[in-house]
# Entry
Amino acid sequence: MPHHVSSKAKTSVANLSIREAAGLTIVYAHLKYEDNQNWTNVYEQANNGDLEVDHYPEYSFDNYTLTPDEGQALYIVNKEAAIIFTNQDHPSQGAVILSDNTRQLAKVNVSKVYQYVKKHGGLAKAKKISQKMNLEKRMAQNNIKQNSSSSSSAQSSSSNRIVKKKDNNGEIEVTSISPALQGTWYAAGLFTEKLNSKVQISSNAINGKTIYKLNKRPNSEKELKEIW
# Structure
């Protein structure tokens, strides 16, 4: 027997708004990429009603930049993951392009996303998430210039420190944090007093503060202070 999609299901897919499609996509990503830390974080935050979905013309993560084609819409979810709708006026007639903060994961037709979530009993959850999320349809300021400006400023500051120490045998340098450790970490128990509720770790910074390493251990407190 051929499988027929009911007219009600067709109507549900056909009438999806960007908000509803975003909710479906978040549940789909959670189901499909359960080992992806960025989308796991997004799903947990979505369940807590702590979800910011911002519309950008272009967005730069630490390692790469996302630029949607004409007619597409790029949404950044809690600065951790990205959704591109290939048809921003009629989401259900296009596809979604899923990315985390390091790479593109997949491109899937929205109708298939809907059917997959439905098959796994996630439609009610997707609806709840879409209703609770803060989705901004207005275009946010392009973060590329902001990042390059703050980056160059930070680089200049870091450069001064590094150059200063290079004159003393180059004992300090910016360190690199493993991709496996990058993302949002949540503190528990006694650690919350020191770290607050969550910590953002990027490629070389924790909560926006650049991390350095010493190539040679200082012999005294005086030598340590001289580094700075």
In short: DSSP finds eight helices and 14 strands in the chain. The longest helix spans residues 143-166.
